[in-house]
Design goal:
The structure is a single chain. By secondary structure, the protein is mostly helical. It has one domain. 61% of the residues lie in helices and 10% in strands. A two-stranded antiparallel sheet has the order 1-2. Strand 1 and strand 2 form a beta hairpin. The protein is elongated. It starts with a strand and ends with a helix.
């Protein structure tokens, strides 16, 4: 007889057909389930703490918004000076007017 345990991984083990051995194997598997449940409970508690921390930040203004805006403006100026994003549509397969038609 082959016992197969499914979880994060799959385990196969050939076991004797004695009832005592099967009972011992099932008890060991069930004991591991309790440990996994405890681990999952701890992880869930941690996720809830993190969620509360994230929720406290929702709706608050970004503390570096002014700096970000100035850097984005500077990036736009650099892009214009370099001609980045200017009507170079090679590689797209069609001109912009043809795509709109």
């Amino acid at each position: 007889m082959i016992a197969v345990l499914h979880g994060k991984s799959e385990y196969e083990h050939e076991v004797p057909k004695t009832g005592r051995f099967i009972l011992t194997a099932v008890k060991a598997a069930l004991a591991d389930v309790a440990g996994e449940r405890d681990h999952a409970d701890a992880a869930l508690a941690d996720y809830r703490v993190r969620l509360d921390a994230v929720r406290s930040q929702v709706g608050k203004p970004f503390e570096h918004a002014d700096r970000l805006a100035s850097l984005l403006q500077r990036q736009e100026e650099v892009n214009k000076a370099l001609g980045v994003f200017e009507s170079d549509h090679s590689g797209l397969g069609e001109e912009p007017d043809a795509a709109a038609a």
